[in-house]
Amino acid sequence: MPLTPFDVDRLVAIITEEVLRAAGGLVVTGRCACHSLHAECCPDLLRGVLDAGASRLGMQASGGPAGSVAGLIDHTLLKPDASQVEIETLCREAAEYHFATVCLNPIWVPLAARLLRGSGVGVCTVVGFPLGATTADVKQFETRRVIFDGATEVDMVINVGALKSGDVRTVHQDIQAVTAVCRAAGVLSKVIIEAALLTDEEKVTACTLSKAAGADFVKTSTGFAKGGATAADVALMRRVVGDSMGVKAAGGVRDLTGAQAMVQAGASRIGASAGVRIVQESRGTTPVGSGAGGY
Amino acid sequence: MPLTPFDVDRLVAIITEEVLRAAGGLVVTGRCACHSLHAECCPDLLRGVLDAGASRLGMQASGGPAGSVAGLIDHTLLKPDASQVEIETLCREAAEYHFATVCLNPIWVPLAARLLRGSGVGVCTVVGFPLGATTADVKQFETRRVIFDGATEVDMVINVGALKSGDVRTVHQDIQAVTAVCRAAGVLSKVIIEAALLTDEEKVTACTLSKAAGADFVKTSTGFAKGGATAADVALMRRVVGDSMGVKAAGGVRDLTGAQAMVQAGASRIGASAGVRIVQESRGTTPVGSGAGGY
Q: DSSP class of residue B199?
């Protein structure tokens, strides 16, 4: 069976982690200019990973590699009144702690892409967020725009209203409008099903349609609905999508215990504004970082 | 001084109300096919208003005209999990109670435009909602799309993050990207400043920029932030924009007393999910209607 782009991503991630571990704390910063995790658009990524390890030994003084937990986290700031200074802090923290990505609103993508160039941290943004109630062509336009601006990962919200109305065809087309553009550009796509608003049956439907539409991840929540991620939802979603997709738990993950519960349930990515706290807890240090508030 | 489009709107509204009052309960359904309140694109609107009064006498049995309060209300349902059945109910109520518009998410605009054709009720929708954190070109694309689908009024959210960062130029360009398209299409534009997130100084700046960008209304809130409309905010906004623009109070207006307080403070439009309750209270009947919950 040929490797899918997602298989390649996982392979790269595993090798990267092993190299890091073998190097005993070396920090790898080699990632191609497009910031993408997709190896097919970054033919030199593996070589870069292997070659670049020694380049930032000095990082250890300012925190060093945070261990595997940081690499699972999308360091998130989505509140509408976040200022440029707060976004700059978010990006600085992400580079320091080596989070997988920063996750921020579309208006901040160009700034984040510029600040994080060469850091190994991706730029994740949101589309149709947080209501998912814009039309498919608007979501697709928004996706093209954020990719143009430098996004390497796109978290889109499904058309919840169509799902609630039994219009499965519209839900599928809506997801595909975004995932097709992402796939063509070598950008990771995540589909937010907003589990707190759905019945279990609707959760299954949403995950099935996401898989059928070629998404890379399903994601539990926006963080703006009445509830966030639960371990039960993560487990259900993992069962539906199997091992060939990612599951992102987001909304309400505020500490290491919460993050571990999500990973144990099947999450392969965590969306959180408390990333610094989570990493510090994993090191046994007292949490002092910013962003430990709500999602 | 020549009449502005907004002056013409107000003139039409006043004449319509007087005609309704003089007719003692006749329901006027004449509005041009574009559903617009802008007389400049509806040259026959005044004639239609005067001619069409007798066409729906039967409405009185099912409620009849609700008096001037209904005409101030955007009957609102913006929760992401609203289903088609709920949207149909919203539109039916709007036609029955003669609200100014229904206010709903973009995905429902085509349905609402179809259901409300000829009813005299406008179709209001939201752009860049509720965070306002998409780029100007995405908001403009979204605006074109909803107007194509039949929206007659567009409520857009400002770029709060840019305002918080002191980037006034970006805030202005963002508003103008939407208002210019609306104005060209004869569609009413409202600018949501999300007052609960702003200092008084930022509220003044946002209202000033909205006026400079040619918006028809400023609007207090999305209903999704930590606070909704306050009489103090409405009064401040009215002072800044003067008499030549509208002020819409939205978020947390749940009864007649609340609506009256907003009007007294200077509001010329109310966004509420409790429209039915408000109208029933104004008639002295017991509230039994749907939509009396949160915004």
A: -
pTM strictly above 0.80: no
Provide, as residue numbers in chain A, all residues whose Cβ is less than 8 Å from the Cβ of B165.
Answer: 83-85
Strands (E), A175-283: 188-192, 217-219, 246-250, 269-272
Cross-chain residue pair A164–B131, CB shorter than 8 Å: no
Count the alpha carbons within 13 Å of B38 in the hemisphere toward its beta carbon: 17
Measured CA to CA, the distance from residue A143 to residue A154 in angstroms comes to 7
Q: Which residue of A has its CA nearest to B104?
A: A133
Q: Is the Cβ pair B107, A161 closer than 8 Å?
A: yes
Judge whether B236 lies within some domain: yes
Which H helix or E strand runs over B140? Answer: helix B136-149
Residue B145 at interface with chain A, using a CB cutoff of 8 Å: yes
The answer to whether position B30 is within a domain reads: no
Beta bridge partners of B102: B75, B123
What residues in chain B have per-residue pLDDT under 70?
1-67, 286-295
- A105, A160, A194 member nearest B131 (Cβ): A105
Q: Is B162 on the interface with A (CB under 8 A)?
A: yes
| Cα A26 to Cα A254: distance, rounded to the nearest angstrom | 28
Token readout for A257 is 């215990």
The position carrying tokens 């990515």 is A269
- Residues of chain B in contact with residue A167, where contact means CB-CB under 8 angstroms, are 84
**DSSP 3-state assignment of A250?**
strand
Does the CB of A81 have a partner CB in chain B at under 8 Å?
A: yes
Q: What is the mean pLDDT of residues A50-71?
A: 41
Q: A231-277, pLDDT tens digit by residue?
A: 999 999 999 999 999 999 999 999 999 999 999 999 999 999 999 99
What pLDDT does residue B285 have?
81
Q: Please tell me the distance from the alpha carbon of residue A4 to that of residue B50, in angstroms, as a whole number.
A: 66
**B14 found inside a domain:** no
What's CA A245's distance to the chain center, in Å? 13
C-beta neighbour count of A160 within 10 angstroms: 27
pLDDT score for B287: 55
Residue A29 has pLDDT above 50, yes or no: no
Contacts of B167 in chain A (CB under 8 A): 84
This model of the complex carries an ipTM of 0.77
Measured CA distances, B229 to B21, B216, B222, B237 (Å): 30, 18, 9, 11
Unique residue bearing structure tokens 């999308």:
A74
Burial A15-41 (b: 16+ CB within 10 A, else e): ebeebbeeeeebbbbbbbebbbbbbee
Give the CATH number of the domain where residue B224 resides.
Answer: 3.20.20.70
Summarize pLDDT for A151-205 with one digit per residue, the tens. 999 999 999 999 999 999 999 999 999 999 999 999 999 999 999 999 999 999 9
How many domains does chain B fold into? 1
Q: How many CA within 13 A on the CB side of residue A137?
A: 10
Mutate to test the interface with B, among A111, A134, A165, A295 (most CBs of B within 10 A): A134
Domain coverage including residue B158? 69-283
Q: What is the mean pLDDT of residues A78-95?
A: 98
Residue of chain A nearest B106, judged by CA positions: A134
User: Given pLDDT bands bounded at 50, 70 and 90, which one contains residue A46?
Assistant: very low
- Residue in B105, B138, B224 nearest the CB of A142: B138
In a domain, A181, yes or no: yes
